[in-house]
Design a protein that fits this description.
Residues 48-111 form a coiled coil. This protein is mainly α. Helices cover 66% and strands 0% of the residues. It has helices at residues 2-6, 10-119, 157-160.
Amino acid sequence: MDNNFRSLRPDIQKIIDDFVKFRIQYCLLESNYRGIQEDHRLDIANINQTNADQISRMEEEIEILRSQLAGVEELHREEIINIRMKYEREKSNYQRTISTLKKQIHDLQTALEKSVELNSHPAFQKSTFINQSQLKKMPSIFKWPSLEIKKSSITTQDSKKKRKLYSIEEDAVVDIPPQ
């Protein structure tokens, strides 16, 4: 049969040979295309699996972080409760101290009022009406009002002495004027 094809006209034979070549090239290209598609599907599957693994790891990390955050929140709540209790204790202590001090102030005021009442008796008060005859005359500071007093400055010889300053030269003498 192969001979039958050889016996055909050469132009038809050329067309058939070209068709066979194209068919072989088509089959090769199709197998390459299928291989590339399979590689592409495998790459997509690998990427999807990698993404799924990363997502699962991230979800696990999120759960761990949520649990840690819940623990930290609980600690903060306990700290807030402790601080509030401490504040309430201090507030009650201050209120007790203030009430005690107010009571002491009230007691002192009543004691002061009682002592003022005792001192308000007319016998304990100074009389506002004093007779001029009862007052003694104050003695005069100047017994001799006609005496004239003069002030004069007296200079002593000690003030006229020459004083020696401390200096490098021991022989130099400098006068310091008296003040």
